[in-house]
Write a structure and sequence with these properties.
heterodimer, A: alpha/beta, three-stranded antiparallel sheet, 10 helices, B: mainly alpha, 3 strands, flat
Chain lengths: ~300, ~400
């Protein structure tokens, strides 16, 4: 029986899974809010005491989170609170930074992502990523979308994959007649939807989105948000956002991260303050720091 | 009615006096000083421009004298470049220059681009900070030193021993590949990672051994049957001590590596990190990212690096002069294993020590003509390369 609802737990996982076996799991909010229930296979990520270091510097510490399947989980917080760092540790993108290192455990459907036998390349094929700045390759629209399947060794049926992915990303109608044109000439919003199509084309189970709308205008942002709501039917989505309204609009659950400053070394370490239902976090947060942040008194 | 008071300066009256242009004109002296300084810098800039113009003008004048004075029909296609005897066969110089440039780029292209890729994509910060200065030291080696190296080491030890024994090189490469494969499979055998049975691994090694042995025997047989007419040239143990174009070209190539590497590395570094992240995020391996995303994105810069390298190799003088295997005249040759005279070496060898070049009529002017051709070629290459470099910058 796993129970993380104890009061002295500083960083509750937001939900807690209590299970005897792989029968139904009871998920409780960490406070007196109503209880969620979902089957065991709906648990996607289980982070326990996750800390990320850059060299000796601990960028973010002791993150405990459970992520549910086909939900949108938002990570919010002030700059430097480590939310992007946490997100990037979920598909081992941090491995690309030579000094980065992870402590604690991060289970993806029960498998430790940081087990030494795990190949980060394999992880990233299952857990896709959309970045802050639209970053199409200087190739044709078609080749951009087909890139993921191609690097995974797929050669046949690419036309269908490209069409399917572009349709899912609500971009097909705009580009179907110019698939062979360069993706560099598209608008920012189109480029970002192309990035989403490109991520979908690899047929991932999870989409990580690192501030996907921060470089877009409000209309393009609205389209991406609409798209996320549709994608939720098939994918588990984690989104980092600076925009609290966006988190409130699109997400089912929200994690609020904050920063603590070490007085002696002036180093800033991020930490997870509160993780719960989006509705509850924005209307009736448990932690004073969360309240200060969402009401604009801090951050 | 409000009492509006204007905050006044210590001068008090200034605020209310009518403002004139003179009040804002500033002191004359300051303006004069400014234009004086400007003049000094203008002169500094002009001097280099004027010198360039003078160089080109003198070059063009003498080249023109040669071009109009020489009997083209008589001199073109003569079997060599003997300027003192009035034999000016440009193809002799052009083909030698071409051989040197091509062979030099065969050395500098792969090695330069390879080091650029390693430095920009693979090397850790520490390795990078160790390797880059080494590459810069190579760039700082005086070409005279490299000329000696080409003449006394590359020519006898590398070209004579290996270049003329191509079969030996191929054989050695096959053998190295064979050893590497066998070691790799043996490691799999020990670690049992490959998921194949021991029997398959052993069978593989046996088949490969048979193949490699056959290939080596075949090579040896071909070599013994189709050996060249000059038995000394084919013998690995006899070394002929003389310069040759290939040796000079390898020397020039070595000199060109740092240039190609640094321009190519700039091009690779200008590819945004976001593209690499995007590729990695889609589950691409490092090698895939480098080949499919980074190299295509940097292609114009890499082309520029090659063109700048070609231009440098074409203009290099001292190494080809010393190790090219010819004095101030040469027969026409299209073989890299013979002595030859490039455009630069042809000019330098004749014009050492004095401007009183002895020869028939137009010997002196012929050098200007060669210089002019060289100048036009290098200038064109540099302009084209500049275009390519700019294209990289514009794209991102």
């Amino acid at each position: 029986m796993v129970n993380l609802t104890d009061a002295e737990d500083v960083n509750p996982k937001g939900l807690s899974v209590s299970a005897e076996n792989d029968a139904d799991i009871t998920v409780e909010q960490n406070t007196d809010t109503p209880v969620d229930e979902f089957p065991a296979e709906d648990l996607v990520f289980d982070a326990s005491d996750l800390s990320v270091y850059y060299g000796d510097f601990r960028a973010v510490r002791d993150v405990n989170m459970l992520i549910k399947r086909k939900e949108i989980t938002a990570l919010i917080g002030p700059s430097g609170c480590g939310k992007s760092t946490v997100l990037r540790s979920f598909n081992r993108m941090n491995d690309l930074i030579p000094t980065a290192r992870v402590e604690g455990t991060l289970l993806y459907r029960g498998v430790d992502l940081y087990d030494e036998r795990v190949d980060p390349v394999e992880v990233r094929r299952r857990i896709g990523m959309v970045f802050q700045k639209p970053n199409p390759f200087p190739k044709s629209i078609y080749d951009n979308v087909a890139y993921g399947p191609r690097v995974a060794g797929r050669k046949k049926g690419l036309d269908d994959v490209v069409e399917h992915s572009l349709k899912k990303a609500a971009l097909w109608d705009e580009v179907k007649d110019r698939l062979q044109e360069s993706a560099i000439g598209m608008s920012g919003g189109q480029q970002q939807r192309l990035s989403i199509a490109r991520a979908i084309a690899s047929d991932p189970e999870v989409l990580l989105m690192d501030e996907p709308c921060s470089a877009l205008d409000p209309i393009a942002t609205a389209r991406i948000e609409e798209l996320m709501a549709e994608l939720k039917d098939e994918y588990t989505i984690l989104i980092v956002t600076h925009n609290m309204q966006q988190a409130a609009r699109v997400s089912d659950r929200t994690a609020f991260f904050s920063v603590e400053v070490d007085e002696t070394s002036d180093r800033r370490t991020g930490l997870l303050v509160e993780y719960t239902n989006t509705e509850k976090l924005f209307s009736n947060p448990d932690d004073e720091r969360t309240e200060n942040y969402i009401t604009g008194r801090f951050g | 009615m409000a009492d509006i008071s204007i905050p006044s300066t210590s001068a008090g009256a200034v605020g209310r006096d009518p403002l004139t242009v003179d009040a804002l004109a500033g002191p004359r002296k300051r303006a004069r000083k400014e234009s004086f300084i400007k003049g000094i810098f203008f002169i500094a800039a002009s001097v280099s421009i004027i010198i360039s113009i003078l160089i080109v003008a003198s070059l063009v004048r003498e080249a023109w004298t040669f071009a109009t004075g020489v009997e083209w029909a008589k001199t073109w296609g003569q079997n060599g470049w003997f300027p003192r005897q009035g034999v000016y066969d440009m193809p002799t110089l052009l083909v030698s220059s071409l051989i040197v440039t091509v062979v030099a780029m065969l050395v500098a292209g792969p090695l330069g681009l390879g080091s650029a890729i390693y430095l920009s994509e693979y090397a850790s910060k520490k390795t990078r900070s160790l390797l880059k200065p080494v590459l810069e030291v190579l760039a700082g080696v005086p070409s005279v030193v490299l000329g000696f190296f080409a003449l006394f080491f590359i020519s006898p030890q590398v070209i004579e021993r290996i270049g003329r024994n191509g079969w030996l090189v191929i054989g050695a490469l096959i053998f190295v590949a064979y050893i590497a494969l066998v070691i790799g499979w043996a490691r799999n055998l020990v670690q049992r990672e490959a998921g194949t049975s021991i029997g398959t691994q052993v069978k593989r090694i046996l088949i490969l051994t048979a193949l490699v042995a056959t290939a080596l025997i075949l090579l040896w047989w071909i070599n013994s049957v189709a050996g060249s007419a000059d038995p000394a040239a084919d013998n690995f143990f006899t070394v002929k001590r003389s310069g040759q174009l290939a040796a000079a070209a390898v020397g020039v190539g070595i000199l060109t590596i740092p240039l190609v590497a640094s321009v190519a590395e700039d091009a690779l570094a200008s590819v945004p990190k976001e593209l690499r992240d995007a590729s990695a995020g889609l589950g691409a391996r490092k090698m895939t990212t480098t080949i499919q995303v980074v190299l295509p994105a940097a292609v114009s810069g890499i082309v520029a690096a090659f063109i700048i390298g070609i231009s440098r190799a074409l203009g290099e003088t001292m190494v080809v002069f010393m190790a090219g295997g010819a004095a101030d005249a040469a027969r026409f040759t299209s073989s890299p294993f013979e002595g030859g005279l490039t455009m630069t070496a042809g000019m330098a060898s004749l014009a050492t020590g004095t401007d009183n070049v002895v020869g028939e009529g137009l010997t002196f002017q012929s050098l200007y003509f060669v210089g002019f051709v060289l100048f036009v070629l290098t200038l064109t290459l540099n302009i084209v390369a500049g275009r390519f470099v700019n294209r990289v910058r514009e794209k991102y």
